[in-house]
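SAMPLE LOG
Freezer: B-3
Tube label: C17
Construct: single chain, 437 aa
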Amino acid sequence: MTRHPPSAPPSAPPPPAPGLAHGWLHALAAVLAGYAVMVVVAALGLWLAGASELPQGAFLPVIAATVVMAVGGRVGLEGGAGTIARSDAAVTVFPLSVALAGALVTAYVVVRPLRRHAVVPGGRMLWLFVRTAVLWALVTLLIALGARHTFTVSTGEEFLDDLGDLLGATPTVGFHADVPVTVVAGLLWLAVVLVLAFAVSRRAPLPSRLVPAHTVVRPAARAMVGVLLAYVVAGAVIAVVTAFTRAEPADGFAVVFLGLPNVAWLALGIGMGASWHGNVQGALGVPMPEALAAVLRSGDGDVTLDLASLSEHDGRAWWLVVAVAVAMLGAGWATARRAPPGTGHVRNAVHLAVASAVAMLLIGVLTRIDAHYGLSLFGIGDPSDTGGLGGSIVLLPNLLPAIGIAALWGVAAGLLGSMAVHLVARARPARPDTPAP
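STRUCTURE (predicted):
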């Protein structure tokens, strides 16, 4: 009787590719989770700022408008009092606490289920992006349609209110989202978030053609994302401690939930040596550190916001340079540690320089503020004029010099970090070879 050798046990079948329904559910979960956390963070921040007391049910539309601005959408403001008064207002500002929370959650939900795969076909990756974009555009459209409200403003005097009704001059204030612009901006916001998520993640699968490029890009990109998040965490600690030392801590916590990265990343840029320009005129303002507000109010026209002007109002501003030096050296070390074997000092420096320049580009774009309001009475005055009957706040980056300065920081930190990793590796004693048994 001939014996046959035992056959090898059958290998486990590969996990089945997710079906069409599963793909749509995955995309829907990412979209709903991202927007849900943005709504919650915006609601908390606005509630702490007192927006829940707005009249005539304006709180929910204001939350929607805040989320719209968080994804880069445009919100227009309007108001008037019939033929007697007319007002004009516009605001461009990114509530980055809301945006950052949504970006982190969206990226996590998109990437997490894919980690068990080493690579993913290009077509499947494309369809993942397309499904997520379609659902994101739909939800963005619904929120933009909800970011609209108009309510009358009572003077507090019955006679004046009745007179306003008689003359057709009841004061109104309203806002609305620019729906087409918001949908397009929301899709661009999603694209940036997904590209960054796959660029910095260690276990996110990519098409095989992109794996070599990802191995090169990821160390520096991940290091700079770490710097940005570290600044937010440090800013949160400082903001919480400062809030508890004030008479009204709710205002400080409102800044944490609405605009903490705005201030933290501005500090990063100023510490590097970048500059912004702008001014504050009239009574219009947004929550910001006292020294920053003092600089912007220090001139009749545009003033420069940089390390020198900020230190004139607060000598502690020079510590921003120390913080940047520590953070960037850490980024240089992390880049070199994660770089592929054999990567030279110059290449590490170049990679970190590019990542630093891209980070500064994002900081400059996302920290800009441009808001104004104007009022015309009986046809006298121009609603677009912010002098006298209006106010404005403007904060714009000097972007090209800032990008160049950030790149120089990246070169220096990349070289020093790479050399430090090399020296530490050489200083470690070599492990003795294990004798063969």
